């Protein structure tokens, strides 16, 4: 079952006290980013976050769920009605999350992918130093 945009917008509103929250649609679900790092996502209208030390400390009774078959377990966030809790959770998790990966763009350059708004538009920045000049 795919996630609905209504639930996505509810979660984005709950996270609106944070700067630089963004998302990316993927196969009917939504990946959530905080300052460019993947924090978790919305899967089957559930907010799941990566299993980090700080997330486990803030949610010691959290249930581990699979976002989809074959994926790593993530933590189900039950307190989605609390903006204060979600803000604290995302801020606490940030330092433990890996930095975004740089990808080769198949034309000789490196691409950093950034998703900076809530419209679902994708903004790509290309490092031009490796692209041959024509």
Structure description:
The chain is α+β, with helices and mostly antiparallel strands. 21% of the residues lie in helices and 30% in strands. The chain has helices at residues 5-14, 53-58, 83-94; strands at residues 21-26, 29-34, 37-43, 46-49, 64-65, 74-76, 103-104, 110-114, 123-127. The strands form 2 sheets. The chain has a 6-stranded antiparallel beta sheet with strand order 1-2-3-4-6-5. Strands 7-8-9 form a 3-stranded antiparallel beta sheet, with no helix packed on it. The radius of gyration is 16 Å and the shape is globular. The termini are far apart. Mean pLDDT is 83; it is low at 114-134.
In short:
The protein has helices at residues 5-14, 53-58, 83-94, and strands at 21-26, 29-34, 37-43, 46-49, 64-65, 74-76, 103-104, 110-114, 123-127.
Determine the strand fraction and express it as a percent band. 25-35%
On the 0 to 100 scale, the average pLDDT is 83
SSE order, as H and E? HEEEEHEEHEEE
Radius of gyration over alpha carbons? 16 Å
Provide the structure class.
Answer: alpha+beta
Quaternary state reads: single chain
Strand order of the largest sheet: 1-2-3-4-6-5
SS summary, helix count: 3
Principal-axes geometry comes out as globular
Q: Could you give a short account of the major beta sheet? A: 6 strands, antiparallel
